[in-house]
Amino acid sequence: MTVRIGGDFDYEAHGGGYARQRRTDPRIAALLHAALGDARTVLNVGAGAGSYEPADRHVVAVEPSASMRSQRPRHLAPAIDAAAEDLPLDDGSVDAAMATVTVHQWSDIDRGLREMRRVSRGPVVVLTFDGDALDQFWLADYVPQLIVADRPRYPAIGHIRAVLGGTSTVTPVTVSIDCVDGFTEAYYARPEAFLDPAVRRSQSAWGFVDADVTERAVAQLRDDLESGVWDRRYGALRHQPEFHGSLRLITAVPPDDPAQAD
């Protein structure tokens, strides 16, 4: 099998604004860091610009995109130029491994997950989206093509758990109304955000939708916002403090991990 390193989205050409738009949301970070347990050394795979890396632990970051590596803030250690499918670490060399909203970008998801399991002595923590739940978001009514294109990119939650093995849990992650991590569902109560090309560029799903489809959808959304149609249909969301969508946190510990609960 030929492995195409770098995933299905060209971050060299289109990843320039990720550090500005895709920031660490503290509530999501708290859940993720709790899942890491008492790990002192953490591998961050597909680290991007460094979102969600814990500041109180030693982090080894791996990121294959030069554009994304260049966006890491100065207080974070430089990321290693490598991909999930071939991690340059020894077996069991870190206490825990994490991957946040990245597994769908990998060219060989199973190989990347097995690599994470290989190098981690303890938990492997994966933040991802459940493809089967993507259409719960109102944006699907404006751009159904976005869901059609995006859903196959996400591995099934059960499949991720099976590949990682051991004992695993799945935690639905609620999205707060003022979430600062700019994935699509973060703007469930702020529809005007999707009129901004910079916001859309930081959401890789739009890269799989034809430009004319995007233009028509954005034009329709703009018209509906100006006329009040959007608010008549979905306006209650503007005051809903949380959204229960497709974001999931998977925590997998090896069978012999004494920290596993049961």
TrEMBL record:
It holds the Pfam family Methyltransf_11. Transmembrane segments: none annotated. This is Methyltransferase type 11 domain-containing protein. Residues 43-120 form the Methyltransferase type domain. It comes from Candidatus Protofrankia californiensis. It comes from the Bacteria. GO terms for molecular function: S-adenosylmethionine-dependent methyltransferase activity.
